[in-house]
Amino acid sequence: MSDLVLSKRDFDRLRGLIEGWCGIAVDRSKSYLIETRLRHLVAESGCSGYGQLYELAARGDEHLQGRIIDSITINETSWFRDRGFYDALRGLVIPELVSRARAEGSRSLRIWSAACSTGQEPYSLAILLQEMERAGEIPLLTPRRVEIVATDICHSVLALAQLGRYDPISMRRGLDPDLRERYFEKQGRVAVVRPELRERVSFRRFNLLDPMDALGTFDLVLMRNVMLYFSTAVKQEVLHRVLNVLRPDAPFAAGASEALEVYTRDFEVVRQPSCTYYYARPKSEPEGKEEGRVR
Ligand SMILES: C[S@@+](CC[C@H](N)C(=O)[O-])C[C@H]1O[C@@H](n2cnc3c(N)ncnc32)[C@H](O)[C@@H]1O
After folding, report:
1. Ligand 1 center to residue 134 CA distance, Å?
2. Are residues 61 and 107 in the same domain?
3. Which of 18, 166, 226 for mutating ligand 1's site (highest number of atoms within 8 Å of CB)?
4. 31-44 and 8-22 helices cross at what angle (nearest 10)?
5. Strand (E) positions, 104-250?
6. Total of domains in the chain
7. How would residue 294 be classed by pLDDT, with cut points 50, 70 and 90?
8. 225-234 confidence digits (pLDDT tens)
9. Which helix (H) or strand (E) element contains residue 13?
10. 67 and 87, same structural domain?
11. Rounded to an integer, what distance in angstroms lies between the CA atom of residue 117 and that of residue 129?
12. Is pTM, for the whole model, over 0.90?
């Protein structure tokens, strides 16, 4: 199998299928990604080569489609990824959401961790909320009243996230020892998220290219380090549809390297010293009005 070669035609066909399914645009200079990551599937599916794999996949074999997506996605993540982002969540964004909820007479919040990979992002959020409660920073809002919905397209990462079991290497990436102690149980070499934290997060499979309305509305959406894999047109489409599930003037966050203002004018850009937040611009608000805002 190791001498299997991906022709230019099969690369283009597989690349088109993948982008159509999940938005991931594999650049022509990275054809090796498809070649190396799908090689095992050629063998497992009993195909003679990439051409036959394409034909099987294009016929609508859902199982194979899921396996191809699982193989092609990049699931890199870590605890409290980009510290400055979590500092701004704690110091500014969550307190602001809590005061707004209180002003509206509500005591609950909904947060969406879209593209959550193996779960470090939604669990980091759940830990952050617990820590804020311990420090008395979120009066009248217990973390139990914050619903964290975590989604990803990839079956295998979701299965790991749901189990909440992490090996020593992933536990070292971004997690302080005292948080490790407080929120995880040791089971041999593996650290397991404590049940009270795990039940704060509900995981489900969701493709960002699908209609989002059924997810309900959110007070905060994190869609970090995923749109960088999408073409400009797909980014614009996803951003446009996010507006349907974000409450008006609610914050939205992307990854540190994803400057979304280039792709849409539907969000007010709020730069913090160490990260950028995007606020869904109320439909009637003209551009530029935000300049006087204090955030
Ligand atoms: C690099 S990880 C980012 C994880 C986390 N948000 C973070 O910043 O650490 C990107 C994730 O996006 C997911 N993904 C890619 N395309 C997707 C799509 N169309 N719908 C949902 N998730 C997708 C991948 O499966 C992967 O787990």
Report:
1. 31
2. no
3. 226
4. 90
5. 109-114, 146-152, 165-166, 184-187, 190-193, 201-205, 220-222
6. 2
7. very low
8. 999 999 999 9
9. helix 8-22
10. no
11. 20
12. yes
